[in-house]
Design goal:
With 179 residues, this protein is of the alpha+beta class. The protein is built from 3 helices and 11 strands, in the order βββββββαββββαα. The strands form 3 sheets. Strands 4, 7, 8, 9 and 10 form a 5-stranded mixed beta sheet that branches. A 3-stranded antiparallel beta sheet has the order 1-2-3, with no helix packed on it.
Length: 179
């Protein structure tokens, strides 16, 4: 496979929309054609596959207005400016669930929608999680927490009830480590 150069950015403009920045760029493609390309410049995030000592997984049910639906997800959140992905994963797990872990495994990262955002989500497995406090949710977070066995999580994935992209990636990466 021949290595191609990245597109050349001729002009770039940032358009702020709420908490997002839409990048609007005039680019020159590899074949020298020019076109306008836009995408959402989005902070990186984290997703945590949290496992208790007895193999239960923390699954969250959270309302997602963009899709107008309550979604099953793993704990996740955006990385603040100066935080590391691991520090963010620990904070998000504690805030969203009230749980902490004694063992953390870096599962790499994914680009959930590389055609439309610059976002990367860093994946972690947290093993040996135990209750350390209460949830500390943001005003826009409506989260119900439940513990499910890994087999039940696989059933939720297979039935299409668990569609959280970063969560699916974390489960797959973890499964690859365990095999």
């Amino acid at each position: 496979m021949t290595k191609k150069q990245p597109w050349k950015v001729m002009e770039s403009e940032n358009v702020e929309v709420s908490k997002f920045i839409v990048k609007k760029e005039q680019v020159q493609l590899s074949n020298k054609d020019e076109m306008e390309f836009s995408y959402v410049s989005f902070p990186h995030g984290v997703c945590v596959l949290a496992l208790t000592e007895d193999g239960q997984v923390i699954v969250l049910k959270q309302y997602r207005h963009a899709v107008r639906h309550w979604e099953l997800e793993l704990p996740a959140g955006a990385i603040d400016h100066d935080d590391s992905p691991l520090a963010t994963a620990k904070r998000e797990l504690l805030e969203e669930t009230g749980y902490q872990a004694d063992q953390w495994i870096n599962l790499g990262f994914v680009h959930p929608s590389a055609g439309s955002t610059s976002e990367a989500i860093h994946l972690f497995a947290a093993k040996g999680v135990c209750k350390a406090g209460e949830q500390e949710l943001e005003p826009s977070e409506e989260i119900e927490m439940q513990l499910v066995g890994m087999d039940e999580l696989y059933e939720l994935i297979g039935s299409g009830d668990f569609r959280h992209g970063a969560g699916l990636a974390a489960v797959l990466q973890y499964q690859c480590l365990e095999d």
